[in-house]
Design brief:
There is one protein chain. 39% of the residues lie in helices and 20% in strands. It is built from 7 helices and 7 strands; from the N terminus they run βαααααβββαβββα. The protein has helices spanning 10-18, 20-28, 43-60, 70-85, 92-118, 183-194, 247-269, and strands at 7-9, 122-136, 142-154, 159-166, 204-212, 222-228, 244-245. The protein is globular, with a radius of gyration of 20 Å.
């Protein structure tokens, strides 16, 4: 690793935390397994397509989603999906992907949005990029973090939630302060510090949410995995015992995640790529094992 490397993405650091050795093979050496020839849309392409459609929805839709206008919102999403999927080959598998989006993901998304708007929140930032966020290392030197946040929801008081759309699985909350959820807390700290003057003011992060679009959790689509229960306690969550945290606990999670980001950068620059995966059960399926 170039010792003068001073730019890191949050996604990159999350990959390192998941497994330093896998990060070394993939990100440092640039070695990837050969892709199988398939007509299927890759998980990465599927996620990008869904993210693009949902971003474009709120770029065109400038009002709350309600039960009364839900059919209108569904029509807009279908129009956006038609345009997005038209750029793909007309194969059975791609038609199946489009059908999955329209019959499952759209319905879960709209049901969640109807309830979301009742909370007095609104989507304020969509696919928001943050670049050159300065993070000081233990030795006093600074590096720059970059991120792209799917969505930031804000209330009238400037309290905000970080939102990440998911078409696959995601880490679930734990009862204690030490969490496997890493990217969203870091996004919250970065957004509070960097987004000033270009939109609604972000005063205080109060929640971190995944949208379980494919129904992996079995609950509703909007899963506020961690939130400050002292600020408000009406968020939908698939883990209602682990997700609510006191104000002190929530703040500690944010601080601890930034500490993990700092430690990850320092280990990368030190060339520490020991095989210490966060979840060893995934090693059996890893091509770099």
């Amino acid at each position: 690793v170039p010792q003068k490397k001073r730019g890191f993405s949050v996604t990159e650091l999350d990959a390192f935390i998941n497994c330093p050795y896998d990060y070394y093979i993939t990100d440092i050496l640039g070695i990837e397994p050969l892709e199988e020839v398939s007509e299927d849309i890759s998980p990465l392409d599927r996620g990008s397509k869904v993210h693009g459609i949902l971003r474009n929805f709120y770029l065109s839709w400038n009002k709350p989603v309600t039960r009364e206008n839900k059919e209108e919102a569904r029509g807009l999403l279908k129009k956006l999906a038609d345009a997005a999927f038209a750029r793909e080959a007309d194969t059975f598998r791609n038609r199946r992907e489009k059908d999955l989006f329209l019959t499952v993901m759209v319905e879960r998304f709209l049901d969640a949005e109807v309830e979301f708007w009742k909370q007095g929140l609104r989507p304020a930032y969509l696919e928001q990029k943050i670049e050159q966020y300065r993070l000081m290392l233990s030795n006093g030197k600074e590096i720059e973090l970059s991120a792209k946040i799917d969505r930031i929801d804000v209330d009238a008081d400037g309290n905000f939630l970080i939102v990440d759309y998911k078409t696959g699985g995601y880490p679930l909350p734990k009862m204690n302060v030490d969490q496997d959820i890493f990217q969203l807390p870091v996004y919250a700290v970065m957004a509070q510090g960097a987004l000033k003057g270009n939109g609604p003011i972000l005063k205080k992060p109060i929640g971190l949410a995944y949208y379980d679009l494919a129904g992996k959790s079995g609950a509703g689509a909007r899963d506020v995995v961690l939130f400050n229960k002292d600020e408000r306690n009406d968020h939908p969550s698939s883990k209602p015992k682990a997700s609510p945290k006191s104000a002190e606990e929530f703040e500690a999670i944010l601080k601890q995640s930034m500490g993990k980001a700092r430690e990850a950068v320092e280990r990368i620059l030190a060339g520490d790529f020991t095989s210490t995966p966060r979840d060893e059960s995934k090693c059996r399926y890893c091509p770099n094992e």
